[in-house]
Amino acid sequence: MATPQTPNSNPSRVIPLTCSGHTRPVVHLQFSPITDGTYYLISACKDGNPMLRDGPTGDWIGTFMGHKGAVWSAKLSKDASKAVTASADFTAKVWDTYTGDVLYSFTHGHIVRSADISDDGARIISGGQEKKLRIFDINKPETAAMEADGHESTIKSVIWDGDRNVVLSAGDDKEIRIWDIRSFIQINTFKTDHPITSMELSADGKYITCTAGKVVYFLDASNYQVSKSITTAYDVSSVSLHPDHKRFVAGGSSDLCVRIYDFESGKELEFYKGHHGPIHTVSYSPDGEIYATGSEDGTIRLWQTTPGKSYGLWQNKTSKDEKENDVDGITTE
């Protein structure tokens, strides 16, 4: 792997927090919006046990027990009171984040790869290896789901965009499809040259970020046109845009480094080593102070946007205090 010549890499001053607990690759991460003065982080893992953590510190809050297969996606509702997970056990489950109880379990005919929850927490959208999209009404769980034949191959990502009354789906057929929630009719399409490996909505809802092959796309969420595309030197697995839109973080399926880019120019600004396997998922916190990365190595790492700043468990430690320690499953390295 070639070492970039222009970016700054100074691992000695960057001390990520390592969140342990998972036993297999971490494949999806999502921060909640800020609610009641704080925010939360949820993780999906092939070990089948999604976990909820305190966002600023990474401290473990609880594990959602009940899936019988790998969990491919985990997302929180706007108020973080519910979580929705998509699993290889052919179910999408809705959880109470306060008690950890399963509220609803929706059975599918094959592996569910992605699910999302509506802004009001009343409905979910799901998709996976059946190539179908389904909308379930949480308030009427006995009612049959709305269905649409979504894609020509596996659906990897779904998004609920309540501001525009649409849902988005993306997958291995190299397409993002946009659907009207009310009629469940496809109203727009965006095509890429490679299978789409990830798709997320930026924190402010302005951009749809997606990755396909070595390319990062930023689509204008109001018209689904490309605002910016940036080609990297590696296969990109996930990308997250900073809330101020000045930078973004990317992880790669064939790369062990965390990479930070300038949004306007696309120039690589920083790269950091830390994980011992490819990085499958990345996510910025809602305040932009940290970003999380999940890896094939089974760990989640939290990184400061501004290294050295007092925030969460980072308290301007001296070099003497920077030795490895372990607190509630969190390790500073």
From TrEMBL:
UniProtKB keywords: mRNA processing, mRNA splicing, Repeat, WD repeat
Gene3D superfamilies named among the record's database cross-references: YVTN repeat-like/Quinoprotein amine dehydrogenase
GO biological process terms held by the UniProt record: spliceosomal snRNP assembly
Signal peptide as annotated in the record: none
Region ranges (Disordered): 313-333
Gene Ontology MF terms: RNA binding
GO cellular component, one term: SMN complex
UniProt WD repeat ranges: 64-105, 148-189, 272-313
InterPro entries assigned: WD40/YVTN_repeat-like_dom_sf, WD40_PAC1, WD40_repeat_CS, WD40_repeat_dom_sf, WD40_rpt
Highest taxon listed in the record's lineage: Eukaryota
Pfam families attached to this UniProt entry: WD40 (PF00400)
Family the entry assigns: Belongs to the WD repeat STRAP family.
Protein's name in the database: Serine-threonine kinase receptor-associated protein
Organism annotation: Gigaspora rosea
